[in-house]
Known about the structure:
alpha/beta, 8-stranded mixed β-sheet, 8 helices, 13% strand
Amino acid sequence: MSALLEGKVALVTGAGHGIGRAHALELSRHGATVVVNDLGSSVNGEGRGRDADEVVGIIAARGGKAIADYGDVGDEDQVEAMVARAFDEFGHLDIVVNNAGIVRDRAVWNMSAQDFDLVMRVHVRGTWLVCRAAAKRWRALAKSDGGGPVYGRIVNTTSGAGLLGHFGQSNYGAAKAAIVGLTQTLSLELAGIGVTVNAISPGGATRLSGTISGADAVPEPDERPEDEFDPKDPSLASPVVAWLASPEAGHVSGQVIRAMGEEISLMQGWTKRTTVRSGGKRWDATRLGAVMATDVFQTRVPGLRLGS
């Protein structure tokens, strides 16, 4: 067992299956005590179960320490209770990995408002609630210590749908894009107390990805032998999460890292690519086509001359 996270306590939401389960196992492998949270619902958010128990059992069998939590990340009281439990049972909470999620995929003309709201509730509200619950306690600790920094790591989960879009996922894509904005904002708000906030964009064959038309079936169990590389292995992003959660990554915050297959990519979005100026005058909409085509989108328009 590695000592990278020795003595640290981590909360991983949605850790009963797939990517969340892989994160919990990876953090434990590096010495962290893990609160394994999972509501135990289906991929579309229905029902409840005790899926977290199996992950806790695996960690215990490997000599690690973990407890199960069955709280709903979209419920404010249950989130406050799960975070408080980590502090009550272990004395501290150092790492939060927000991974819980559901899907309700439909093209926008077929999607109900309920489908949209439920996905936003779990992904956006759930991530925000867990971050807030941890941040309040970390800030209180920092203030009690004279304003000094505390050890705090938050790793949120975005996806390709949020970064690049995906047909049939206007709810999921919007939620995952919102999580990037939340991550960047919280990285600014919590910097003063030493807490880092980053986002991971993982991939792999999971229960959620298996709902997409044409997707591969998800193998069970969702672990591969250590000497076998499978580009669809949902655990491939977990080492990045463990590193972001470690003391080694204290200088990294407000970043989005995409970990897919063998590649790790630092994402950079919403930066100025091309800028044009009006020269201190109001833009004329009838002339914008020419400017946008040649100066912004840098395309060639036959027969078009600027200034004509």
